[in-house]
Write a structure and sequence with these properties.
single chain, 276 residues, alpha+beta, Ubiquitin-like (UB roll), N-terminal domain of TfIIb, 2 domains, five-stranded mixed β-sheet, three-stranded antiparallel β-sheet, 7 helices, 18% strand
Length: 276
């Protein structure tokens, strides 16, 4: 079907979203809660665009295209909305480990500090209760990506959900039990989709705390997980001749970015050195 985006008419596949169409045309539309392998949940609202004859701005990540639709992805109304979203997020949570969000703040000239120095609403201690990953909810923007990854989209463990309402909404384990007592299987798929570093591998967290995390110096090496015959692809992040983190590519047919506890965290045996 034919639609017009930013003055250019193009053909798009029926069933595509506005975000799909924009990407097809090379238009960089910001997203935070959207993931290529996840069901859109429409909560961050940073991807909103203007559709002619539509009263409100619509989320590009989930709105399906329609024949003859006319879309504006960078109008003043859109930019104002995105700017306010980033100001609200930036004033409420710590985005220091969220490079995409920081880039959007700069891109839309957002000024989170205009709400005052005391506007941080979710400041809290980092939860370190296991040796695999940490939870820092002062960085959580409630994007729901971890909930989706733990639920029907990927893991089907349902160990985490959003509890509470309004300002009291927060990510929680089932029945709010401690993580080690929950249904969590420590696959780390929630860590993989987190856009802000609220969920972070403990290896990365420890290096950041020590001031030794140097992402710009890290090499990435693709390999295959050695633990079973499924054939999951791994990307090893290597710093100072040591593996510091393991991820998996979203476009791999086997994993779609997902791994089990062994694939994501069971790499330390590789760099165990025997004493000379």
């Amino acid at each position: 079907m034919k639609i017009t985006i930013d003055g250019v008419t193009t053909d798009v596949q029926e069933g595509s979203t506005i975000l799909d169409a924009a990407r097809q045309m090379g238009i960089d539309t910001p997203t935070l809660c959207y993931g290529d392998t996840l069901t859109p949940v429409n909560v961050c609202r940073v991807c909103v665009v203007e559709v002619e004859r539509s009263r409100a701005l619509v989320p590009a990540c989930s709105r399906k295209v329609e024949e003859g639709m006319v879309v504006h992805t960078d109008s003043e109304r859109v930019r104002t909305s995105r700017r306010l979203v980033m100001e609200l997020l930036g004033s409420a949570v710590d985005l220091s480990t969220a490079p995409e969000a920081l880039a959007y703040i700069e891109r839309y000239e957002a000024k989170p500090d205009r709400f005052g120095p005391d506007s941080l609403t979710v400041a809290q201690a980092v939860k370190v209760d296991n040796e695999l990953y940490v939870r820092d909810y002062s960085k959580c923007i409630l994007c729901y990506k971890c909930v989706e990854a733990c639920g029907v989209d990927h893991q089907n463990t349902f160990a985490i959900t959003v509890a509470g309402r309004g300002f009291g909404a927060h990510i929680s384990t089932e029945l709010d039990v401690p993580l080690p007592e929950s249904a969590c299987v420590y696959c780390g798929n929630c860590v993989a989709v987190c856009p802000t570093g609220a969920l972070m591998a403990k290896s990365e967290f420890d290096l950041r705390e020590a001031g030794e995390w140097r992402e710009e110096e890290q090499a990435e090496v693709d390999t295959v997980c050695p633990y079973c015959g499924v054939g999951c692809n791994l990307t090893l992040h290597v710093q100072d001749d040591a593996i510091v983190k393991v991820t998996s590519p979203d476009d791999h047919d086997v994993t779609r970015g997902n791994l089990c506890i062994k694939g994501r965290f069971g790499y330390r045996y590789v760099q165990t050195r025997k004493p000379a």
